Amino acid sequence: MEQELELQGWLRRNGVDATFRALAALLPGAAVVVTDASRRVLYWSPEAERLFGHPASSVVGRGCPSGVVCDDDAGVRPFGAAVRVPRADGSSVYIRQYSTVFSDGQAPTGAIHVLVLDAAGHAPPPTAIAKTDVTEFHGLVTRDPGMIQIIQVIRNVAETDASVLVRGESGTGKELVARAIHLESRRRGGPFVAVNCAAFTPTLLESELFGHAKGAFTGAVAARKGIFAQADGGTLFLDEVAELSAELQAKLLRVLQEREYVPVGGTEPVAVDVRVVAATHRALREEVRAGRFREDLMFRLRVVPIFLPSLRQRPLDIDLLLRHFTEAFNRAGPRVVAGFSAEAMRALLDHSWHGNVRELRNVVEYAFAVGRGPTIGLDELPPELREKRREPGAQGPGALAIGATTPVGAEADRIRGALEEAGGDLDRAAAMLGVSRTTFWRMRKRAGV
Fold this sequence. Notes:
Layout: H1 2-14, H2 16-25, E1 30-36, E2 41-44, H3 46-52, E3 81-86, E4 92-103, E5 108-117, E6 135-137, E7 140-142, H4 145-158, E8 164-167, H5 174-184, E9 192-196, H6 202-210, H7 227-230, E10 235-239, H8 246-258, E11 260-261, E12 270-271, E13 275-280, H9 284-289, H10 295-301, E14 304-307, H11 318-332, E15 339-340, H12 342-350, H13 356-370, E16 375-376, H14 383-390, H15 410-421, H16 426-433, H17 437-447
Parallel strand pairs: 8-13, 8-14, 9-10, 10-13, 15-16
Antiparallel strand pairs: 1-2, 1-5, 3-4, 4-5, 6-7, 11-12
Helix pairs in contact: 4-5, 8-10, 11-13, 15-16, 16-17
């Protein structure tokens, strides 16, 4: 009793209202809502504004927006219930509701509700991409037919020890392909070692690859094993192999042919059992014609060539990867995102993605870091994406300003309207127009939207 009186006195001195607001502020990412006996809103926290899109000025003193809380006698939600709730902009968020209902012993007098964004998403939204349409393979995520064929090639070649050369632009996932080959092969229990050949000088790279004997050069106070020795029994991934010097090309050829190498400063060959997967963004045939790469080494490395398409060549995967990385960053926390605004989604879908999947992942990470709240807006994207959308004189469909008029007229307006209503979701917008997703993509490109 004495402790309760002390608490009441402390609350009076500091102010009950100020104390309650301070407690609400200590719950980042959670909306706090107070309703009275008539279920009118008495308090609507700043997080509630961000989560549901309704400003406190339009809610306090009125009934709670539809679906946000449930504290009626007929349908009290279970404590921690997961619910889909509409936002002011027409999109939806998934929340978990934790409520305490107060009463005077005879009738309810009001309730406090804590509404937490559901990071797991208790159920997929109706517009979510069906899992049956998506292939996930050792970090490669796609529904592009060409990529699915490449994954089948990876499965097949992994059953052999054939050397593989992976071609593709920077950021397309060449190391993921190499790792997938390793994990699908009989060598999966052995080491997987990756080295970027462009990151070392020729002299240092030779020592890194083959190791060195004691006293081989100044500072070599002890013998040291190289990367080939570390990868023995497993797979070695040589990225940017076109950067190898002529001398190292000759030594690599010997390893591939003889399955042995001589450490720097050594005299005795060392046997090694390593599968080599190489990668480059250059055309090795062009390098051979230019005299920069050995033709015999090229044939040894590219027994099985795999060509990875750029992200620009697999447009079906752009929004899929956006969702994939959003889910990954949601799990990592602390911010949890339910989706993108229509403006942001259009900017992302129309971006050229010269940095490919790596650039897309970095853009999502940037947006998570600089923004707050459940929706990523245009202002939370990197400057190069925002400026491209807003530049009034920009040319090309990817550079159209929001709301600009396109020459195709009615079709462009229909497409824009569907995208607006679908919140930027391509699947839902296509369904609204009664066309397939692929046809809708072609319509957008044709209309310049």
